[in-house]
């Protein structure tokens, strides 16, 4: 009699990001997945405030600019040696690879090209089997003091409208072959609940209690295909009401774009 052993392979994710991917994947995503027995291996290439143009320039010069943060079920967060983008892309196969714009440029269409196309082409060349993703960022809090906020007339609604417009622009650039991770949509929906405009800790980065949790709930549904409202995990600082409201916002955001290569 032969016995077949099934090996549980981790979902491997690479985020070509900045502090907004730090918010979205480094604190809450692994515990959410672990609560449902899902193995994940998240690689976040962190460079604070990094725009698409800066990512493309680092790539062209093969600059070891990134703090390489790895989160797994066994090791919640490990900061490795600095790394180049191409080194990360050569580091085995990934299931999902995400790109994003720096928050301050997220609603400025002229900041996207030609750098997004350069990055997409490079990712596809190194990792043709990976699902390319676009992590949608969120608008700032209404009273944010970020120096770039006046570009949007210090209006949360104007910034959010601009982000949505640029999200559609990414669709055109990527020829509808990129999967939306609608973190911005989830934050927008959560702000419409009794939570109000409280999800950021400094006007733009997500708070540690339930802001980061909201973004990670979006990633959880994208990676697993599971309804996050059936996930019992919450961090110790959250209330049950905050858990319910943020999970619902994340679920509704993902459902809006479900199964769509936007």
Précis, in short:
The protein has 262 residues and is α/β, with parallel strands linked by helices.
Describe the overall structure.
The protein is globular. The chain is built from 9 helices and 7 strands; from the N terminus they run βααβαββαβαβαβααα. It has a 7-stranded mixed β-sheet with strand order 4-3-2-1-5-6-7, with helices on both faces. It has one domain (11-256): Rossmann fold (3-Layer(aba) Sandwich). The chain has 262 residues and is of the alpha/beta class. A hairpin with a 5-residue loop joins β3 (66-72) and β4 (78-83). It has helices at 19-25, 29-35, 52-61, 85-89, 115-126, 156-173, 183-191, 211-224, 240-256, and strands at 11-16, 40-46, 66-72, 78-83, 96-99, 131-135, 179-181. The model is unreliable at 1-7 (pLDDT under 50).
